[in-house]
TrEMBL record:
The gene is mutT. 8-oxo-dGTP binds at R24, H29, E35, F36, P37, G38, N120. Transmembrane segments: none annotated. Mg(2+) binds at G38, E58. GO terms for biological process: DNA repair; DNA replication. InterPro entries: Mutator_MutT, MutT-like, MutY_C, Nudix_hydrolase, NUDIX_hydrolase-like_dom_sf, NUDIX_hydrolase_dom. The keyword Magnesium applies. It holds the Pfam family NUDIX_4. This is 8-oxo-dGTP diphosphatase. Its EC number is 3.6.1.55.
Length: 132
């Protein structure tokens, strides 16, 4: 059994209620699909630290307030991920794709128009249930 990849994932809300999504670069796992920004938790790092680091690296925002939303464990054919998912309610800076990836701010209703990795359906369901 391969080990579970622990991933810090941020559902970032802007003051107008829109959520930040980013398009994964084509060459990566799940390339071309849309995601909530985040990345792997490194050794010796808390998941909160990882989330803050990843959001700064990927979309140039500084997290100021976060709270746990849910954990999703999902088996892909090639790996198992644990998406440790947090709601970000306050941040500073203006989001931009730091790795040439497209980003968009979308309403909860619009989330269904985008193709996400399979593991994300549980996150989208939780967002709709909690925040619609
Ligand atoms: N960030 C992020 N990763 C997701 C989501 N959904 C999902 O299945 N994943 C998976 O989680 C895994 C790790 O995420 P990642 O590729 O962002 O990790 P990372 O930023 O540390 O990238 P790196 O390994 O290139 O440094 C990938 O296999 C990715 O496909 C999501 O909404 N956001
Ligand atoms: Mg990432």
């Amino acid at each position: 059994m391969s080990k579970v990849v622990h991933v810090a994932v941020g559902v970032v809300f802007r003051a107008d209620g829109k959520i930040l999504i980013a398009r994964r670069p084509d060459h990566l796992h799940m390339g071309g699909r849309w995601e909530f920004p985040g990345g792997k938790v490194e050794v010796g790092e808390t998941v909160q630290d990882a989330l803050c680091r990843e959001l700064l690296e990927e979309v140039a925002i500084e997290v100021q307030q976060l709270q746990p939303l849910l954990e999703v464990r999902h088996d892909y054919p090639d790996k198992t991920v644990l998406l440790d998912t947090w709601q970000v309610t306050q941040f500073s800076g203006e989001a931009r794709g730091q790795e040439q990836q497209d980003i968009q701010w979308v309403s909860i209703a619009e989330l269904d128009k985008f193709q996400f990795p399979d593991a994300n359906q549980a996150i989208i369901d939780a967002v709709k249930a909690n925040f619609s």
